[in-house]
Specification:
mainly alpha; 12 helices; globular
């Protein structure tokens, strides 16, 4: 009896040791995942802290009313003006041009890949499409300046060498892979039973795609569009190269203008002393960009919650 008990003890001990090791590994994995999540959250909080604290010093010297209503942006001149709407207009116009290209093109590509392309075409076309999103944005900028602008000037001879139109068009091409890939994923997540029901009612593939699949995937489509908007609003190098970086309050895409991001690059590469009012403008402009992006993300979350379908 005592010998049997003695032979059982090591087996129980090994099982307990294995369970303890497994629990320790799971806790380690949880700690690593928590650390990764915490790094991203802390980075975001750090960025917000820097922008808000530096902007506080800026707004202690500049009226927020002038910041929002002045129609000139000349913070580096002797007669300084701080009208952020000059930069906001360039940002919104270039983003609108880009999204006018990216959203229709990306959605059509997503419909084709999800509903019409066979598996072989999808396996080849989607990686090639996503490669477009990996090209450095500076390359897109010079492509806009050296190729797209001359082509546009053949159609619009009055178009200047730098314009929001050229930069926005190329920026839209750059954003297409983001919207197409995410939209295609959202459409493929729609249950096949919805398609089969439409086919059973005599619908064509095109009618099913447009009137059944797209509405069912609307929450995912909205998320991809919001991501595209955020990408367009925050783009820097294409606009710095092709849009002209000339502060100009305009809503005409045929004119050169500066955007928030291109202005930040322009000042960050200059020799302004730290702590000067001109240097602090980049934090006020960055905070404005952050608030615009936050607004679009809140809108995206609201759209996802409103049109989300549970299958």
């Amino acid at each position: 009896m005592s010998a049997n008990n003695a032979s059982d003890l090591p087996q129980v001990s090994d099982r307990l040791a294995y369970n303890a090791m497994r629990n320790w590994k799971e806790r380690l994995i949880e700690a690593v995942l928590f650390g990764a999540a915490a790094i991203s959250v802390l980075t975001t909080l750090g960025i917000v802290y820097v922008l808000v604290s530096e902007s506080f010093h800026f707004f202690s010297n500049v009226s927020i009313v002038d910041f929002l209503t002045d129609t000139q942006w000349t913070p580096l001149f002797d007669d300084a003006h701080f009208g952020i709407m000059v930069l906001v207009s360039g940002t919104l116009v270039s983003s609108f041009v880009a999204l006018a290209v990216a959203i229709p093109m990306g959605t059509v590509i997503a419909i084709y890949l999800s509903e019409f392309a066979n598996s072989k075409v999808r396996e080849v076309a989607k990686p090639i499409l996503e490669l477009l999103g990996g090209i450095p944005t500076i390359v897109f900028g010079y492509f806009a300046l050296l190729v797209v602008t001359p082509l546009l000037q053949m159609v619009f001879p009055e178009l200047p060498g730098f314009s929001l139109l050229s930069a926005g068009l190329v920026m839209g091409i750059m954003i297409v892979p983001y919207i197409a890939s995410l939209s295609e994923d959202a459409m493929r997540a729609v249950p096949m039973s919805l398609r089969e029901g439409a086919y059973a009612m005599g619908s064509t593939r095109l009618y099913t795609a447009i009137h059944v699949v797209v509405p069912a995937a609307l929450s995912g489509l909205a998320a991809s569009y919001i991501l595209g908007i955020s990408r367009a609003v925050g783009e820097t190098m294409i606009l710095a190269v092709a849009a002209g970086m000339q502060p100009n309050l305009t809503w005409n895409p045929m004119e050169p203008a500066a955007t928030i991001t291109s202005y930040i690059v322009q000042v960050a590469l200059g020799d302004l002393p730290h702590g000067s009012i001109g240097y602090q403008t980049i934090f006020a402009a960055g905070l404005t960009l952050l608030l615009i992006t936050l607004l679009f993300n809140i809108l995206g979350q609201w759209l996802r919650a409103k049109y989300r379908e549970n299958y």
